[in-house]
Amino acid sequence: MKTFIAILGATTVLGVVGSAFAADAGQLAMGKERFDYWCDTCHAGDPREAGRFLPGTASLNAKYNGSRPGALVDRTDLLPPYVELVIRKGMEGMPFFRKTEISDTEMKAIAAYLSRNTKQ
Amino acid sequence: MPIKLPPGISAATFAEAVKEFQGAVGADWVFTSEEDLDTYRDAYSISWGHDDEYLASAAVAPDTVEQVQAVVRIANKYKIPVYAISTGKNLTYGGSAPTYSGSVVVDLKRMKRVLKVDDKRNFALVEPGCSYYDLYQHIKDRGLKVWIDCPDPGWGSPIGNALDHGIGYTASPYRDHWGAHCGMEVVLPNGEIMRTGMGASPTSDTWQDYKYAVGPHVDGLFAQGNFGIVTKMGFWLFPQPESWMTGTVHVPKYSDYSALVDHCNYLEDAHLATGQTGYGSNLGGQGVTAAPEYRALMANGWPTIEQLDAYAAQRKVPAWRAKLQFYGPEKAVRASWAYAQRRISAAIPGATFTDIEFSTLPLSPAQEKTHHLVNFGIPNMAIFQIVARPAAGPNNANPYDGHTDFFAVVSRSGSEVFRAMKAVYDIQKELKIDPITATPFSSPVTWHHKVFFMGAGGVGNQRGDAEHNRRMRALYAAYIEKMAAAGFPAYRTNPGAQDLLVKQFSFNDHALLRFQEALKDAVDPNGIISPGRYGIWPKHLRQKKA
To answer: Residue B405: what pLDDT?
Structure first.
């Protein structure tokens, strides 16, 4: 699964062409609200305790080494299916999320929010 | 992974039961597809991908106590084992997976209500799906003057954490989450609702104030147990302190450690320094084991106390430090710190004191960026740094997918800490672990206010590497058995090791477990509630195992 996610992740770079993904304001608002509730606590863009980046951002900073932003909200290459896959399948130390935590509707909203700056 | 049926249940019978579960909670809240059930695996399991990995046959997510009752009654009717999770984030201790494969997980995440917070009598009453974040936000939104006490991961459940004897970071006794609970509501194996303590009185208003009511106090059966599904629980809360202060004590000799521990015990038990004491050695720390002088010290095996005293003297640094934390009014915390310095100066020659910080509370937003938030009852996820991909090193390309903790219970005495650190060292040496992480400068953690916990090195796991996980399982089992043999059993463990851990508590031919089994047979004759949790198996499964 890790290999699959890595391949799908790589395809997000290739997908950067065209216009932004369609998402209505309501979905984006829900996506931001759910992202802030569930994800920001690890993936925030600003350092927290003792000036350290939080684990998700720290991990992605180490992974991309400056080639992409560590903070998810700053990414411009995320595709909704990739975000959905990581939510349901997890990634390294990040566990997966059940539907009782993040429903399919909420998952799609988070995916829309994180891909709002991605060009098709 | 293939979807499992509950053991001994035919596909047709299971299909009938699933239909009834759907009738009880709604079809949208019964999960049977492989895709959905994959999210009920234990993400940090060291059995991941092994034949004996714990897997659910279905998951059912009730929203009300009445729905929990209905689910339990259906399970009883079909003799289907069920396993309740709260937020399902008990990672390293089982996550959202059951302790008996084929069980139906009862996922209580939807039951996330904060039912009451009282900042005059200082308690909360919550449901199991409520997270530390939820409770914290509820209090913050209403400007209530109480703190929660949270463990490292803020997305956990106060109920789930307490039921697994979880611990936290603020003042004693709130750090002991089970100890700070008061009153619970439980759906029993027959589907009946029971309230414990003063909740059994139809007229009393003290359910969250007084634990005991009259007669035997039965709450303990539901912690690390399998006698029912807890649907409500009360917790005592820390009234928001006016200020916080910290100061660090340094003592020169290695052998001063015992006296340092005794004094810190006094300060905590006398309610003068009620925060978590942070022990450390100035002789240890990152890279210590690679230093030539350390290698020389350890060349002939575990050193004597005299050798360690000489080592500290040569290095010209104080051997040990203890960071004390105080909560309360400014005058009180400053007076307590002054008293701690007088007391320790008089008793330990050469003791010095540094790193003094005082702050009024609550912390400012700027301080929240720099301070260890759990010491202030603020939930966060910073601890997940331990599984984050490191910036450099061998794990950069292939970081761990999780970890499995081992923490032994050690009495708060210097000599016992010395014995425990040597026990970890001996195990690592015997198992040829390279590098050995246990040193004479290892420190216990002080989550619980009456005992120390001594870690034995995190056990990292890889979901994609079954062989690596097999080695980790062997190491983990060795820690459990050998540390218990040395006098230091673990306080908590993952489902795969619960039988082995319980086996170590063997006084009078396992009288405690036999008593629990007798109760289990009486209360849950069909053995449907969480079979095998912390080694308590129902009769029909004990006979199979024998």
So the answer is: 85
Tell me the sheet residues that pair with B84.
Answer: B106
B38 Cβ under 8 Å from any chain A Cβ: yes
Nearest CA in chain B to A49: B370
pLDDT score recorded for residue B467? 85
Q: Please give the structure tokens belonging to residue B132.
A: 């530390």
- Sequence letter at residue B226: N
Residue from B34, B38, B39, B60 whose CB has the most chain A CBs within 10 Å, to mutate: B39
Instruction: Kindly report the number of other CB atoms within 10 A of residue A52's CB atom.
Output: 15
Contacts of B363 in chain A (CB under 8 A): none
Low-confidence ranges of chain B (pLDDT < 70): 1-3, 394, 458-459, 546
Q: Which of A41, A50, A97 sits opposite B154 (nearest CB)?
A: A41
Q: Check residue A7 and give its pLDDT.
A: 39
- Which CATH fold would you assign to the domain A23-114? Cytochrome Bc1 Complex; Chain D, domain 2 (1.10.760)
pLDDT at A47 over 80: no
ipTM of the complex: 0.94
CA proximity to B209, closest of B129, B125, B150, B286: B125
State the pLDDT at residue B433.
84
Cβ of residue A99 closer than 8 Å to a chain B Cβ? yes
pLDDT of A1 over the 70 cut? no
Percent of chain B with pLDDT over 90: 84
Whether B526 and B78 have beta carbons less than 8 Å apart is answered as no
Domain residue ranges of chain A, discontinuous segments joined by +: 23-114
Predicted TM-score (pTM) of the model is 0.94
Looking at residue A119, what DSSP letter applies? Answer: B
**Cβ B89–A95 below 8 Å, yes or no?**
yes
The nearest alpha carbon in chain A to B392 belongs to: A62
Answer whether B496's CB lies under 8 Å from B195's CB: no
Q: Does the distance separating the beta carbons of A99 and B31 come in below 8 Å?
A: yes
* Chain B interface includes A62 (CB < 8 A): yes
| A13 has a pLDDT exceeding 50 | no
Query: Which residues of chain B are within 8 Å of residue A5 when distances are taken between CB atoms?
Result: none
Per-residue pLDDT tens digits for B193-249: 999 999 999 999 999 999 999 999 999 999 999 999 999 999 999 999 999 999 999
Tell me which residues of chain B, numbers 58 to 87, contact chain A at a CB-CB cutoff of 8 Å: 59, 61, 87
Q: Does B109 touch chain A (CB under 8 A)?
A: yes
Would you place residue A27 in the very low, low, confident or very high pLDDT band (cuts 50, 70, 90)? very high
Domains and CATH numbers, chain B: 11-107 (3.30.43.10), 114-239 (3.30.465.10), 241-361 (3.40.462.10), 407-492 (no CATH), 495-545 (1.10.45.10)
B389/A59 Cβ within 8 A: yes
Residue B353: strand pairing partners:
B249
- A24: which DSSP letter? -
Mutation target to probe the B interface, by most B beta carbons within 10 A, among A101, A104, A105 is A101
User: Cα(B104)–Cα(B529) distance, rounded to whole angstroms?
Assistant: 10
**Which tens digit of pLDDT belongs to each residue from B266-325?**
999 999 999 999 999 989 877 788 889 999 999 999 999 999 999 999 999 999 999 999
| Pair B92, B44: CB distance under 8 Å | yes
Residue B193, token pair as written in the block: 């609702």
